[in-house]
Amino acid sequence: MSVVDVSDQESWFHKNQQRIAPWLFLAPGLLFFMVYVIIPVFQSFNLSLYEWDGLGAAEYVGFRNYEDLYWEWVDRDAFYTSLKNNLIWLLLYLAAIPAGLFIALFLNQTVWGIRLYKSLFFFPFVISQVVVGLVFTWFYDPTFGLLNEFLSLFGLGPLNVLGDERFVTYGIIFAGLWPQTAYCMILYLTGLNAVDPEQIEAGRLDGAKGFRMLWHIILPQLRPATFIAFVVTIIGALRSFDLISIMTQGGPFGSSRVLAYYMFEVALSEYGFRMGYGAAIAVVLFLIMLCFIAYFLWSMYREERGH
């Protein structure tokens, strides 16, 4: 290689250094994302077309696993219950977003003791979901739980929340809302720190205050935080597993199952090592998540183009 060729390569690198540098920084993350996310997604799609117990030879069955899921839906069997519970999780879990916003607005004040309040509201976010599950299992206990102690003051109870098919899913969702609200609160607190004070001052001069100030001036500036809160909350609701495993193990009588827990049951528990069937459930769960996230991405893209 001549000196001219080397100098030409060096000059090309120096000319394109600013364009290349971001990709060099992104390369390790993209590589890990490809290996641990993208490739397993396609492997799950492929595995869902097979009948496999995890040890022997895999047998190609085409879309039979999806047909079985369809008939479970028609017969209102385990898959129907799991999907229905996931939709309930999704609808009620979204309450964490407005709750986190209002707590963030309250904590975004300069009053005495605000650091203590922030620590108390932040606490649920840093503890494990396993701990949250155990705490609420004790809270709901029909013999010594605080919930029934409180109900007894009004002559009510005892109420076995986790043992009643009517209440169990709502009880677990309420437990999950505790740390999820804290997470949304942190997102909004971060967003509130970036709100433009000049816009707020201009709004005050125009007579905006209270709800009008919040709706027309503060919330539009919190759009990025709201988008992240929606995406994270939707994903958290659809992949809920740990609280169900700790608090009820899908019971009573499978009434608190969700898709992620049902996938675990059919693929890895004593119900039988049906890896292909579990992969089919994972694909359905992935497609539901993809639809919601694609919708929010498209909505944000349209808003950005509109501005």
Automatic annotation (TrEMBL):
Belongs to the binding-protein-dependent transport system permease family. Gene3D superfamilies: MetI-like. One of its GO terms (cellular component) is plasma membrane. One of its GO terms (biological process) is transmembrane transport. InterPro entries: ABC_transporter_permease, MetI-like, MetI-like_sf. Keywords: Cell membrane, Membrane, Transmembrane, Transmembrane helix, Transport. It is a multi-pass membrane protein. This is ABC transporter permease.
